[in-house]
Specification:
This protein has about 450 residues and is α/β, with parallel strands linked by helices. The chain folds into two domains: about 5-185, Beta-Lactamase, CATH 3.30.450.90; about 190-445, Rossmann fold, CATH 3.40.50. It has 15 helices and 17 strands. The strands form four sheets. The chain has a seven-stranded mixed sheet with strand order 11-10-12-13-9-14-17, sandwiched between helices. The model is unreliable at about 1-10, about 40-65 and about 70-75 (pLDDT under 50).
Length: about 450
């Protein structure tokens, strides 16, 4: 799919063909507000989640299981529907697309600002053909086997911007469930773009000097910016004089100058074998995309103990918003204990950690200002921030899907091992600063447990 914006949208006739209706029946459904065409985009159809389809209406739909049919590039309604869903996700700034079959239909949801929204329900007869189309686009190992776990990458160009879409497929009772993670390019180049303060960005750059022996961890809860941190860090470390190796089980966000190693234990490419080969090739930095098991944790620590510079990603259940960076890093020690690495072994080799949370920011088009209350002013100043006279709260408009929030930004805590050499700012201080500057509201701070409402 080279440019989904050009050929994605479905005409009335194509929509009718996919749904198993005549154009006249489709027009009746539109008048009954069961299906809608957006007035500013007349050839793109919304399938309302509450609409349920008659199985008798779609008995004549057939699709053969051959690659030539699925790759009839950009010409068939099915292919264009697959493109259409991706285009809609991009235009809604979604981070994930969930395509999940249930008993009666195929549900499509987008994750926008960290929250899943149901977008459409598609007739069940399209489930397998649409799933196979996405698997083909991702170049998975066997796109016609819907009963196995599969991963792959879809690469597209839309509005002159490139995107990597990381796809994972999992078999379920009613068919294969797909989740597609949208990774916009190019990668962020400055830590300030992710939400770091100038002081934190300078400290992070110092911590991530390539070639310094030891283990540096990147940590965040699931879906809260771990991949984005890695992309920024690798962009800044990717220099001609460095020999970088990135080890992971999926080859997303590639970059020239970085050797991407696809781990595949079933075929002998384990983390230990990959590290052994990288050492023979003179690696200056070895990066583990994510530590998920005891073996990978052991290899990462042993590699750092051998004198190499090692980075590794770790998912954590969550960081306490008001805890200090030194307290937050203890969660990582506990995580590694679960992998069989004792704290007394981890601490000497740990150079530092970059820890992140995400906070929703207010929609700039509809946020409304209100006078700051005395309890809010007190709590703001308790965190070392000057209280403003006016703060903002979410309202909701069409541009933010009536939520009042648009986009997310990062909250960071840094640990460098030295008691005098790291920024002591907590996640809560970053969140309160955003509240005081009008970028976040009190409801979001309560959701993140920065404070409770007075």
């Amino acid at each position: 799919m080279n440019d989904p914006d050009v050929s994605a949208f479905l005409t009335t006739e194509e929509t009718a063909q996919l749904l198993g209706f005549s154009p006249g029946e489709l027009d009746q459904l539109r008048r009954k507000r069961k299906i809608s065409a957006e007035p500013f985009r007349k050839n793109w159809w919304h399938f309302f989640p509450e609409f349920r389809y008659s199985e008798r209406a779609v008995l004549d739909f057939h699709w053969s299981d051959t690659a030539s049919d699925f790759n009839n590039v950009e010409s068939s309604p099915l292919v264009r529907m697959a493109n259409c869903i991706i285009v809609e996700a991009l235009q809604n700034a979604a981070s994930d697309i969930h395509v999940e079959p249930d008993r009666r239909n195929l549900r499509v949801r987008f994750r926008i600002n960290g929250t899943l929204h149901e977008i459409m329900a598609i007739p069940k007869h399209i489930t397998d053909p649409l799933t196979r189309r996405y698997l083909l686009m991702a170049k998975t190992s066997n796109p016609f086997n819907l009963g196995s776990l599969q991963t792959g990458i879809i690469r597209i160009c839309s509005q002159r911007r490139y995107y990597d879409i990381r796809l994972s497929s999992m078999p379920s009772r009613y068919g294969a469930k797909l989740v597609m993670r949208l990774l916009p390019g190019p990668a962020p180049t400055r830590w300030e773009e992710l939400g770091m303060s100038d002081a934190q960005a300078a400290q992070t750059a110092d911590l991530l000097q390539s070639g310094v022996p030891g283990l540096t961890l990147f940590a965040a809860p699931q879906g809260e910016g771990l991949t984005t941190m890695f992309r920024c860090a690798l962009f800044n470390a990717n220099r001609p004089e460095h020999n970088l190796y990135f080890l992971d089980d999926i080859a997303d966000f590639p970059a020239a100058g970085i050797t991407r190693v696809l781990l595949d234990p079933a075929n002998g490419m384990t983390a230990a074998e990959a590290v052994r080969a990288a050492k023979r090739q003179g690696a200056t930095l070895i990066v583990f995309g994510e530590i998920t098991d005891r073996e990978t944790a052991r290899v990462a620590v042993e590699t750092a103990e051998s004198g190499l510079s090692v980075w590794a990603g770790v998912r954590v259940p969550g960081f306490e918003m008001n805890s200090t960076p030194r307290s937050s890093v203890r969660i990582l020690w506990t995580r590694f204990q679960g992998f069989g690495i004792a704290p007394e072994r981890l601490e000497p080799v740990l150079r530092g950690a970059v820890m992140a949370r995400l906070i929703r920011t207010l929609c700039p088009d509809c946020k409304e200002g209100i006078p700051v209350s005395d309890p809010e002013a007190f709590q703001i100043e308790t965190h070392g921030v000057v209280a403003p006279s006016v703060v903002f709260q979410a309202k909701g408009c069409d541009l933010c899907r009536k939520t009042g929030y648009r986009n997310r930004t990062g909250l960071f805590a840094l640990y460098t091992g030295s008691p005098m050499g790291y920024d002591r700012s907590s996640f809560a201080q970053g969140a309160v600063s955003l509240f005081a500057s009008g970028e976040a509201d009190a409801a979001e701070l309560c959701r993140l447990r920065v404070w409770t409402r007075a």
